[in-house]
Amino acid sequence: MALIKKPVTGMKDIMPDEMQIRDYVMQVIKETYRTFGFTPIETPCMENIANLSSKQGGENEKLIFKVLKRGEKLNLETARTEADLVDNGLRYDLTVPLCRYYANHANDLPNPFKALQMGNVWRADRPQRGRYRQFMQCDIDIIGEPSNLAEIELILATTTTLGKLGFKNFEIRINERRILKAMAAYSGFAEEDFDTVFIILDKMDKIGLEGVAEELKKAGFADASVEKYLALFDGVAKAEDGIAYLAGELAEFLDEEVVKSMQEIAASVTSTKTADFELVFDPTLVRGMSYYTGTIFEIAIPEFGGSCGGGGRYDKMVGNFTGKDVPACG
């Protein structure tokens, strides 16, 4: 059998000139984040399959590169389930490994803990333009800070870094998971249907408002609920202050503290930013990960034609390892 020169589909070789640029970019990222107090750490490329398949990673859990058991642990003759065959998997992001890392080392780490990670992740995805099966992620996270100071610092650190790399006129889109839920409840959707509604809403950029309406109706939701839901997005688009508009419309469903926190984040970031960007409230922003519990955000750079980063608050995730919830945002 002839050997194959090309890399595995969905992965790529990096040439010297590209490597030089990447090294420079990584150096700027690392140096800037360290000025904000973030500490570099490293986690293994493989995690226990139970951690990766714990219903925290959303759609990414369907894309795990699973690793077969080895030696005496693997018995193909008696294997009946996947658990008999697989014990580990390649990480699909850096957040799940970080939570395990924190749970394992919490007694030796400062509080709050500000982590910086740069490393490859792997997803068994269908390769296409701009989407690889192996790619590098750069994460910053703050664990142990319950207030919105974490969100403010994460946004400022990230935008400052992008500014130092020469990016201008980009957007930070921001939303809140509790606003998403309040909008769905107000419209008459049952709580057990929220995830289905959000999965469809997440397609807004690709199929538009009419496409979302059509898919919601195809999913069996009542016309009245769909129309009431879409009217909220229309109202935000027409309002001078979208957050204030929703605060009024969703008064019975949305905690005032959520609105206040969003307004504080917007005011603080806008008044202290050093990079050239706009902070934009976007009620259609969902983010695919099911572990988000509060604020969510995404970076949109026009030249890239889509999102090049994002994150949010995940206050329940560390608790899956420790049995006690720990505030976290990244």
Automatic annotation (TrEMBL):
It comes from the Bacteria. GO terms for cellular component: cytoplasm. InterPro entries: aa-tRNA-synth_II, aa-tRNA-synth_II/BPL/LPL, HisRS-like_core, HisRS/HisZ. Transmembrane segments: none annotated. SUPFAM superfamilies: Class II aaRS and biotin synthetases. L-histidine binds at D93, L94, T95, R123, Q137, D141, R287, Y291, Y292. Belongs to the class-II aminoacyl-tRNA synthetase family. This is ATP phosphoribosyltransferase regulatory subunit.
